[in-house]
UniProtKB/TrEMBL annotation:
One of its GO terms (molecular function) is GTP diphosphokinase activity. Residues 45-144 form the HD domain. Residues 386-447 form the TGS domain. This is guanosine-3',5'-bis(diphosphate) 3'-diphosphatase. Keywords: Hydrolase, Kinase, Transferase. It comes from the Bacteria. Residues 629-703 form the ACT domain. In eubacteria ppGpp (guanosine 3'-diphosphate 5'-diphosphate) is a mediator of the stringent response that coordinates a variety of cellular activities in response to changes in nutritional abundance. It catalyses: guanosine 3',5'-bis(diphosphate) + H2O = GDP + diphosphate + H(+). GO terms for cellular component: plasma membrane. Pathway: Purine metabolism; ppGpp biosynthesis; ppGpp from GDP: step 1/1. Its EC number is 3.1.7.2. It is an enzyme of class 3 (hydrolase). It comes from Pseudidiomarina sediminum.
Amino acid sequence: MYLFEGLRQQLAEYLPPEQVQRCAAAFQLAAEAHKTQKRRSGEPYITHPVAVAGILADMRLDHETIMAALLHDVIEDTEFTQEDLAEQFGAPVAELVEGVSKLDKLKFDSKEELQTENYRKMIMAMVHDIRVILIKLADRTHNMRTIGHLRPDKRRRIARETLEIYAPLAHRLGIHDIKNELELHGFYALYPWRAKLLESQVKQARGNRRELVERVQTEVETRLRDHGIQARVMGREKHLYSIYKKMLSKELQFEQVMDIYAFRVIVDEVDTCYRVLGALHNLYKPIETRFKDYIAIPKSNGYQSLHTSLKGPHGIPVEIQIRTEEMNLMADRGVAAHWLYKTDESTGTTAQVRARRWMQSLLELQQSTGNAFEFIENVKSELFPEEIYVFTPEGRIIELPQGATAVDFAYAVHTDIGNTCIGARVNHKVHSLSKPLETGQTVEIKTAPGSRPNIAWLNFAVTGKARAKIRQYLKGQETREAEQLGERLLRAALGPVNYNDIAPEEFARVCAEVKVESQTQLLREIGLGNMMSVAIAKRLLGEMQQLKDEQQSTGGSGLSIKGAEGLLVSFAKCCRPIPGDEIIAHVSPGKGLVIHRQECKNVRGHEDEPGRYFPVQWDNKPNAEFITEVRVEVVNHQGALAKLTSAIAATGCNIHGLKTEEVDANIYYIDVALTVHDRKQLADVLRYIRKMPDVQRVARLRK
C-alpha cells in the first residue's frame, strides 16, 4: 500500500473520504492483478497505473476516472473481466476500463491499418465518454516519461504517433499542460540531436535577454499599478517544440523566433482584461492587425484570452496575453478543468461544451466517410485548427480552420447548401469559391436547385466535413452515371441482339464467371472502363465457351487472332507471342486486347480475374510476321557479330534490333529482335544459330 500513499494524499485534497476509499480498493485489486509483472525499466508494473492516476488527480478528475486509471490495464493483461470489475466497482468504471483496453487490443494485417483503425476506435470511444481519452492521454504521458527504456525503432514510432495524434488531441481538448509535456518528450525521442542543440541555444538566448525581459516586466507592472489594476505579470517562455515547429513551418532562423518577447497578465475579472489592454496600448504602440479577442469569440477548444502585439523598448516586438485566473486554469487544463462530469449541453465549462460539439461533428464525419484512412485524414486536419471566425448574413458566427474557403463555409452551415452552392459573396462583393476566407468577413452563399458539387472543390476544401460530403456525393453520382454508361456500351456491343431479350440467368452466369456480385455492378464496371463491353457481350452470347471448345479441339494454329473481331489487338512487348504459343488476351481499357503468352509473368493469376482476361486463339492467315527476341551467348572473337547477323539473314528472317552486353572478358550476350512467321520457323532459326562455332548457348528471351 505504500505506493498508494502519495496518491491518497493527492485525492484527499479534493475528494470525500468514502471516494478515496473506493480508489484504494481499486488500487488493491490492480496491485494484486499485476503483482507478477514488471515494466521494461525493471520496476513493478503497478507503478505505471499509479502514475497515470496521479496525472489525472493533478487535474482534479472524479473518483470513477481515477479508479479506471488504476485498473486500465487489468482487463487486457490479467484474468479479470469487465463483468468482475462491474460487480466490484460499478458499471461506469468497468466501461471506462473496457474503453481504454479496446484501444490497445486491436489486431490488423498492416501497420497503417492497425494505426488507422486504432485512432478511429479511440475517437469513437472518446465520443461515447470523454474520460476514456483523458485516461489514454495520461497513460501516454507516463509512457513518454519512461520512453528511454524502449528499443530505438519502437521509441521513434511511439514518439511520432505522440506528436501526430496525441499531442494535437490534447491541444484540441484544451489540455495544454499535457500537450506541452507530450510534445517535449516526443521531440527528444524522435529528434534527440535537434532537441539538445535547440535547448542549449535557447538557454544561451534566455541568458542574453534577461535584462530586457525584466525591464519590460517592470514597466508593465508600474503602468498597471498607476491605473489601480491588480495583476500578476509573468514572462512567458516559448516551448522547445513550438520553437522548432515555427522555424520549420515559417522557415525562420532561430534568432527570428527568439526575437519575440512574450508576457502573460493575469487579473481577477473579465472587465479588468479590457482595462489592462487600454493601459498597455498607452504604454507601448500596438502593432496593427496583431490583436485577437478570444474572450468574445473563444477558440474551438474553449481557450479564452486577449492577445495583443506591441512595439516595446528599442522597437522589439512584445506579445502579451491578458486573461483571468479562471481562463488561465482553462488554458492549462481545458476539458479537464472544474471537472464535474455532465452530459447536459447547457452546463459545464466552455471547453467541455465545445469539446462535446466537436465530438458530435466527428460522429457525423465517421458516418459519412468511406473508410478509416479517409476518416483519420479528416480528423488529422481537424486536430490542427488555427481558427478563423466568419459571419452568416444573419450574424451567426461560424468557426472554421485557417485556409477555409466559401465551400467549407457552405458545408458548415448545412450539407444541402454545400451541395447546391454555385457562388459566394463576401462583405457584399463577389468572392471566388477557392479563395481563403479571413476572420470577421460576412459570407453569403448563392445556391441553385439542381446544381451539384464539383470534383475540383476537393483541391481547396479544407474541413473534414466538406471533403467527406463532396466525396460522398461524387461517389453516389459516379456510380449512377457509370451504370447508365455501362448499359449504353453493352447495348451497342450486343449489336443486333436486344439487351432486354437476354435472360437473367445469362447475366447471373456471366457475373459468376467474371466474379462480380450483380448485374448493376457488372454495368458499373463496364461504365468505369474496368471491363470491356465487347468482351462481356461475347460472354453473354455464349461465344466465349464456343471459342474455348474450338481451342481445345484444334489445338490453336495459324496466325491472326480469332474471337477478337471488332476489337483493337496488340501484342505484348514483354513476352512477344508468336503463332504456336499458348496465348491469352488481357483486356486493357484504351488499348483493346493485349495478347500475351500464357506463361508470361505479367498475366500470372489470370484465372482469378476472368473479367480482365479473354480466351483467344491463333487464326489461319498466312504471310503475317511477328517480332520475337532471342538471346545468343557468344565468344567474342573478331567478326563474331557479323557472322551471327549474316547467319540470321540466311534463314530468311529480318533483324529488328540488337543489344549487346559483356558478361566477362570474352563472353557476350547478344539480344536479337527478329521477325518470324511462327514457332516452327523460330525453332529452325535457333537450330541454325546453335551450329555456329563461337555460339555457346541460344534461347528465346523471356522477360
